[in-house]
Write a structure and sequence with these properties.
Helix content: 40-55%
Distance between the termini: 56 Å
Strand order of the largest sheet: 1-6-5-2-3-4
Shape: globular
Radius of gyration: 24 Å
Length: 407
């Protein structure tokens, strides 16, 4: 089985420009491909998993990845899937975020001479002269076609700015530039990027008379069609300081029964034969499959030692044992106290167990909150400084834990 057939079997491929040519290139290690990452935060998220694991799979098959850091395009902001305009970042913010990305990508991709490359599109986009750009590529884009593009769909409902309207041209120009200067002949991206990617292949064809290729990967969604990679309204980060290894493990341990095998197939490097054997698993076996998924992904991001700690801590908690040393912990300072105490709803929000006080109130009233294994029924319950110094273990539902400690 070639790498292209494996991608199909794992359910990773959504759309391709020319299947036979792409199959031949990937299976024979002839692709120099890129995936773009706009630097909108100082950490990658679980939503980037598909792209990162795809790059690793293709590199292992002999193809050459380019991780394109969007130092230039982040200055514009991708409107795809957005109902509002993205926050404008400074160049200092973007450069800091790019450095954070590289450290995380190195866990997946092998960078170096003759291997993968990391390139920043600010190197060419920020040098472009507007009138020269219009003369060079403007005639290659139909405004009518651009307005029909899916990437602008949601923004059109609320008002698409001219700034964002240029994003497709910038992304297309990236492919055009990489094709000429780095021999990049393929672009990969999420399925919501299809219109932008076709813009690049068309620009290369019209300006250079050459064929370039594009392939989109399936968006990671749950059985309800919602994008995966968020919990309690917040992103699941790859940075351990933003999402602890325990919380990261727990996120994947808690995926729905209907989603676990799909996630194993799409995100892990377990052999397909082993995954096929799991397809008949039911009941407690599905819980075992979730543990496998959580362990594999936590190992990839945080290392095997952290994955073992998270697994052991989770099992101890579910068994009611006292081993809680690896539980995610929230540290409070004296400024967090009011009259020498902290109330339960504030603590639930500070720990991230609840996104808001109204959600905290609802969980308490429904009997879903415990503190040190005792159910909390009073929304006005508070904890003294002495109690907090000893540590208070909060639990929301059956699987969400956090230890609060006053330092």
């Amino acid at each position: 089985m070639g790498i292209y057939e494996e991608l199909v079997a794992r359910g990773l491929i959504a759309q391709v420009t020319n299947e036979e040519e792409i199959r031949e290139m990937l299976n024979n290690g002839k692709a120099t491909f890129y995936i773009g990452f706009d630097c909108t935060a100082d950490s990658l998220t679980a939503g980037h998993f598909m792209a990162l694991t795809l790059m690793k799979r293709l590199q292992l098959a002999g193809n050459r990845p380019i991780a394109l850091i969007g130092g230039g395009t982040t200055m514009i902001g991708d409107p795809s899937g957005r109902t509002d305009m993205r926050k404008m970042l400074t160049m200092e913010d973007i450069n800091h975020n790019a450095e954070c990305f590289k450290r995380q990508m190195e866990r997946f991709i092998d960078f170096g001479e003759g291997k993968a490359q990391m390139i920043n599109n600010a190197d060419w986009l920020l040098k472009l002269n507007y009138v020269e750009l219009l003369r060079e590529v403007g005639a290659c884009f139909s405004v009518n076609n651009m307005l029909r593009a899916k990437c602008y769909e949601q923004r059109m409902e609320r008002g698409l700015s001219f700034l964002e309207f240029n994003y497709m041209i910038m992304q297309s120009y990236d492919f055009y530039y990489l094709f000429q200067h780095y021999g990049c002949n393929m672009q990969f991206g999420g399925d919501d990027q299809w219109s932008n990617m076709l813009g690049g292949t068309e620009l290369i064809r019209r300006k250079l008379g050459e064929d370039a290729h594009a392939m989109t990967i399936t968006l990671l969604t749950d059985s309800q069609g919602n994008k995966m990679g968020k919990t309690a309204g917040n992103a699941v980060w790859l940075d351990p300081n933003k999402t602890s290894p325990f919380d990261f493990y727990q996120y994947w341990r808690n995926v729905g029964d209907a989603d676990v095998l799909k996630c194993i197939r799409m995100l892990t490097f377990l052999p397909l034969e082993q995954i096929d054997e799991m397809s008949s698993w039911e009941g407690s076996q599905l819980n075992r499959a979730k543990e496998i998924l959580a362990f594999e992904l936590t190992s990839m991001v945080h290392g095997e030692e952290e994955a073992k700690k998270a697994e052991a801590s989770a099992k101890a908690l579910f068994a009611g044992a006292g081993s809680r040393e690896n539980m995610p912990t929230t540290e409070l300072g004296a400024d967090d106290l009011v009259d020498g105490a902290a109330d339960i709803m504030t603590l639930l929000v500070k720990t991230g167990l609840c996104p808001s006080k109204s959600d905290a109130r609802r969980n308490i009233q429904q009997g879903g909150v415990t503190a040190n294994d005792e159910k909390v029924s009073d929304i006005g319950k508070s904890f003294t400084a002495e109690e907090l110094k000893a540590g208070v273990v909060l639990k929301r539902g059956k699987k969400n834990f956090n230890k609060v400690v006053l330092k």
